[in-house]
Amino acid sequence: MGASAPRSQDTPFLPDFCDIRAVFAVVLTGELLALVLALMSVPALEFWPVLGSTSLFVQWVGLSAAALLCAGGRHLARLPPAAASFAVLGLVVGLTAVLSLVAVWLFDEGPQAPRLGGEAWAFLARNVAVGGLVGAVTLRYLFVQHQWRLNLAREASARVQALQSRIRPHFLFNSMNTIASLTRTDPALAERVVEDLAELFRVSLGDARAPATLERELEVSRRYLEIEALRLGDRLQTRWEVASLPGGALLPALTVQPLLENAVSHGIEPSPTGGLVSITGRVVEGVLEVRVENPLPPPGAPDRGGNRVAQDNVRQRLEAFFGGAAGLEAGPGGGRYVATLRFPWRERTP
Amino acid sequence: MKVLVVDDEPLARARLAALVAEIGGATVVGEAANGLQALEMAQASGPEVVLLDVRMPGMDGVETARHLARLPCPPAVVFTTAYEVHALSAFEVRAIDYLLKPIRRERLAEALLRARQLAPHRAEALTALPGGVRTHVSATQQGRLRLVPVTEVRYLVAGQKYVAAGFPGGELLLEESLRQLEAELGARFLRVHRNALVAPAHAEAVERGDDGLYHVRLRGVGLAPAVSRRLLAGVRERLRGR
């Protein structure tokens, strides 16, 4: 523990000043400030000499501050944002004051150099004021930007959570009804359905970001179909051909089960005679393929909806997990409805 | 009280039948697995209450209820549903009762009691239930409910009081207006006259008759509805594509 890497939600809002990009940002900001200050210097003829000397001074302060922040960054990161801000502001103001005095001492002569005396004190005060104000504004900017980034991360995480596949409420209540019925006639079977249902909901209510092994996902899918088979009786027939799939492959949890839920809801339930839902798996050049087929709904059957929603949900979670390497295709084909899931073979590294 | 249990799921039927049997004064006179079977059993055993699952394959509960309401002695209907209640909740709770699965015995007993008291008011409410597109048209003939699949209907011709639905083998006199029927079944039927719709799927030809008017000849039925002059071009256009 101790100096271990900070967790993502409490990354310090100050950038790492040892990073060349941060140093470049300091140089750029300093140069902009010098430009503004030079433009404000009244006589137009003096623009270039003023820009030169101001740049020199601002960069001197800026780069020295960056160097000190780079050296002390580790300690600053442990402070709360308010304390860190005051520390940085104090550093910038102090540095400006010290370097202003050094500047007065070094460049006591020359056209732009301020003379010692009252003018020197005015120079010092002006520099400290500008340094403090610019430092405060920059810190505020960094803080706001940090908050914005945090929000973005939080939103993305919330989106993944919201995308989590939720088993349809209809299924829950139907299963409850199945259990209520079995409790009277076949308590042992009722008990098994309760266990299966508990397992399904444990996965459904779990962490959306945690991947599942294919073996586990197929087991959960099988449990789901077993519950539905009890409810639908002879109307639901299933065929599994998944022996060639590697059980250890990873995928987002509940990516196969929603396809089966669609198959039952659109292919079996609307038909008085039911039909066959088949699940076939194969591996083609390192890409895993899981195919779910079901009968087309009978013509004129009312649209039960939800098909597209579940598919889009699966697609987005595949996208979040595999990037563009995975996909889901679905549509009628050969007189049946076919949904094909493809994703790369990835295993958990031990 | 005679109760008919209708649900496409065997386990749901078994539980409901067991619950009804436990309630004093109620007996299960039949268990049906779908809407058509339910209508047949309802006529055979004359239940006072039908416990009707909303979501069934083929003819759903709402359509079954509309046909039940046309029986000479319409039974009271209590819908059962696992989750979707939006189709029914739009109605007055007093007019249409529904039970959520898994159904509680007390709720079921209450519903059966109320069904008996309110039965007369309900038939009307049931015929007015908005549902999806019906699969069958129905009417009573000689005291029996006759059902004909919509896919078999060749024409719908409005008479003075009823709309005649023609199919090979006869006509059914429907109580709804042609306008209502067109609104619901418009995808399957084409208006050819102020008082007539035909099924393009069964149209054979548009011919000029002895009366000088054009008629649509339909497969399997004798009547060829007349096409109004105003609609003739449109009707020809639509039927030519076939």
Quote the distance from N terminus to C terminus of chain B.
Answer: 53 Å
- The structural domain count of chain A equals 2
Radius of gyration of chain A: 33 Å
Helix content estimate of chain B = 25-40%
Biggest interface reads: A-B, 25 and 23 residues
Helix-strand makeup class of chain A: alpha+beta
Radius of gyration of chain B, Cα only, in angstroms?
A: 21 Å
Number of helices of chain B: 7
Count the strands of chain B? 15
The main pleated sheet of chain A reads as: 5 strands, mixed
Largest sheet entry of chain B: 5 strands, parallel
The CATH class of the largest domain in chain A: Alpha Beta
Describe the structure using short key phrases.
heterodimer; A: 350 residues; alpha+beta; Heat Shock Protein 90; 2 domains; five-stranded mixed beta sheet; two-stranded antiparallel ribbon; 9 helices; 7 strands; 13% strand; disordered N terminus; B: 242 residues; alpha/beta; Rossmann fold; OB fold (Dihydrolipoamide Acetyltransferase, E2P); five-stranded parallel beta sheet; five-stranded antiparallel beta sheet; 7 helices; elongated
